[in-house]
Amino acid sequence: MVATARPALEAQRLRADFPIFDQKIHGKPLAYLDSAVTAQKPRQMLDAMHTFYETSYANVHRGVYTLSERATAEFERARGLVAAFVNAPSPRELIFTRQATEALNLVAYAWGLNNLGPGDLVVVTELEHHSNFVPWQYMAKRTGAGFRMINVNADGELDLGDLDAIAAEGQVKVVANNLVSNALGTINPVEKLAEWGHEQGAIVVVDAAQAAPHHPVDVQALGCDFLAFSAHKMCGPSGVGALWGRRELLEAMEPFNLGGHMISKVRYEETTWGELPHKFEAGTSPIAEAVGFGAAIEYLNEIGVEAIEQHEQKLAAYALERLGEIPGIKLYGPPPDRRAGIVSFNLGEIHPHDVAQILDSEGIAIRAGHHCCQPLMTRLGVAATNRASFYLYTIPEEIDRLVDGLHKVQKILG
Amino acid sequence: MDDLYREVILDHYKNPRGHGVIEDADASAEGVNPLCGDEVSIYVQFAPDGETVDEVKFSGRGCAISQASTSMLMEMVVGKTAQEIAELPKEELLEEVGIPLTPIRLKCALLGLGVLKVALHRAKGTPLPQEWAGLDELELK
After folding, report:
1. No. of H helices and E strands in chain B?
2. CATH of span A11-36+304-413
3. Which of A31, A185, A353, B95 sees the fewest Cβ atoms within 10 Å?
4. pLDDT, tens digit, for every residue of A99-158?
5. A69 touches B at CB < 8 Å
6. Would A11-36+304-413 and A47-301 be classified into the same CATH topology?
7. ipTM of the complex
8. Distance from CA of B115 to the nearest CA of A (A)
9. What is the mean pLDDT of residues B96-117?
10. What ranges in A86-147 are assigned the alpha helix state H?
11. CA A166 – CA B85 distance, rounded (Å)
12. CA distance to A307, A308, B66, per residue, from A314 (Å)
């Protein structure tokens, strides 16, 4: 065990940073248990965006005037912070996108369209969010490549026993998987999948949208080729995300969006592309959002992602224990030491929408639905689940309120 | 907010009227709410005149609101003609349901009515208002 100098996270104290909690919902304090879909925003990040708009806003990489240079410096500083957060070898390999979904589409189109064909295989997992499933399913169909899925076992963990059988069916060219499942919280063995993928000669594309806010991410240690994540799930603003990619792959790829800023030279006869990362950042970027993304990363660094992960694992263990006391509840996913702060469940035959609606009347926000994971829902044999998810500002009392709320649901609908 | 789950809704949810399947139904359709994955199938049997609904049943899965409103719908439409049901305004069902609904929950409450109108449209060629046309296209069976 490595001793950590950083103190444990104090969620109750951190809540003061989040203005959203200064309100009541239906007369009750807000218990926001839906951070997996999007996280709430600390004042530090909001202030950074506000100050940037008030003092330094201009377009970036355009003007020679002071304001434009100031804006560019802040924008590029944010890129450096985001790149360092995932241990990218160089900020030039870090591309700002609208969100993880656009980052994954970028890879599917700009790499997939030119490198996939009949006889090739694209491999995804049954745990994928639609954002790392649908683009690959579509691209496989469009290029004539095969499409295969690594299945999950009863605990919602990937069954890697199928890998050899998949490899025997064709030339594996893409392995696309998430690091943390948004539906079940499963932490996936990305290092192993990356090693296997590279043995096959495939690129390894990691959706880290659910991992980056909660779990240390190191692209070099993971051994992947591309990694996508979104600012809005990690205390940053909506509208900006990031793609990290290996430089040699990014350089060899065709561009994705075409237009201003991404060019080197435009002539009537031909256009040549700009250098990284600009080649993949056509048009005006989400500038203030990128600055906010950087501020969110600084906020998380101050607390420490390891401390956040420990806090969430404690909450998940507590939630599994408390929820397990409720008669008729069905809990999904792996044990707490192998999951992030996400707990998916069903309350007997009661529809998740009814559960979420009644909990809302208690001021408790949880997600009810398929979590953009319909293939996984099919495997679990349900249309939808309830999902409670935690973050650095979640306190155990909110889990107690969730349990009390679920008893109320059973009283009304049971 | 608990008004949503008032007595009459819970009664229909726990004891749905017309729940089941009619084999060899004269008209039937199945619909899905893509937001939540809820599914409902509706089966209609006509009286000897071929126009009046003699029996109607529904099956599927859904939230209390969709199950209760579909159950209420089953009671409302027996004895009506296909044409009358095609012209039945959604407000009439919503009045029966009698609870304030957000736009998202409105879709839950109206799924059954849409599927019934699609079933009649297919069997009898009754008009299908624009708002249900999407349901007809979504439905693949």
Report:
1. 6, 3
2. 3.90.1150.10
3. B95
4. 999 999 999 999 999 999 999 999 999 999 999 999 999 999 999 999 999 999 988 999
5. no
6. no
7. 0.81
8. 19
9. 90
10. 100-107, 113-115, 134-143
11. 53
12. 11, 10, 37
pLDDT of residue B140: 39
Q: Distance between CA atoms of B29 and B85, rounded to whole angstroms?
A: 15
pLDDT bracket for residue B62 (50, 70, 90): confident
* Residue among A224, A235, A372, A373 flagged as catalytic: A372
Fold for domain A47-301?
Aspartate Aminotransferase; domain 2 (3.40.640)
Mean pLDDT value across residues A182-198:
97
Chain B residues whose CB is inside 8 A of the A387 CB are: none
pLDDT at residue number A370:
87
- Distance from A238 to chain B by nearest Cα, in Å? 22
List alpha helices for A271-343, DSSP H.
287-303, 305-324
Would an 8 Å CB–CB cutoff place A16 in contact with chain B?
no
Q: CATH assignment of B2-138?
A: 3.90.1010.10
In terms of DSSP H, where are the helices of A200-274? 219-222, 247-252
How do strand A342-347 and strand A329-332 relate by DSSP bridges? antiparallel
**Residue percentage of chain A with pLDDT more than 90:** 93
Element (H, E) at A245: strand A241-245
